[in-house]
């Protein structure tokens, strides 16, 4: 089980990303638009830099929904390999058979 503080920090980041998503998209559109004057693009770059760092989607890290584990995460299932193995062994995932030899 991951530390509760790490899970809470990740949820806080998700909230910030959702809050600033439209603002960041607008500023990035201005920055990448070559037809705009250089001064306006530079002001948009400065405004983007003033936004909170954790509002960037790049800073998000996938975590297992059951345990909070950040490594060995299956995107399709949104759980870690360890949780997948436990659920498979318990027969809670339809069609999955844990092999042993």
From TrEMBL:
GO terms for cellular component: cytoplasm; small ribosomal subunit. Keywords: Ribonucleoprotein, Ribosomal protein, RNA-binding, rRNA-binding. One of its GO terms (biological process) is translation. Transmembrane segments: none annotated. InterPro entries: Ribosomal_uS14 (IPR001209), Ribosomal_uS14_bac/plastid (IPR023036), Ribosomal_uS14_CS (IPR018271). GO terms for molecular function: rRNA binding; structural constituent of ribosome. The keyword rRNA-binding applies. Gene3D superfamilies: 1.10.287.1480. Belongs to the universal ribosomal protein uS14 family. Part of the 30S ribosomal subunit. Contacts proteins S3 and S10. Binds 16S rRNA, required for the assembly of 30S particles and may also be responsible for determining the conformation of the 16S rRNA at the A site. This is Small ribosomal subunit protein uS14. The gene is rpsN.
């Amino acid at each position: 089980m991951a530390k509760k503080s790490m899970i809470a920090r990740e949820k806080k980041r998700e909230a910030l990303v959702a809050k600033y998503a439209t603002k960041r998209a607008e500023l990035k559109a201005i920055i990448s638009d070559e037809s705009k004057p250089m001064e306006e693009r530079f002001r948009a770059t400065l405004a983007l830099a003033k936004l909170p760092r954790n509002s960037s989607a790049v800073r998000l890290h996938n975590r297992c929904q059951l345990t909070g584990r950040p490594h060995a995460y299956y995107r399709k299932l949104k759980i870690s390999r360890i949780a997948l193995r436990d659920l498979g062994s318990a027969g809670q995932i339809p069609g999955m058979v844990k092999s042993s030899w």
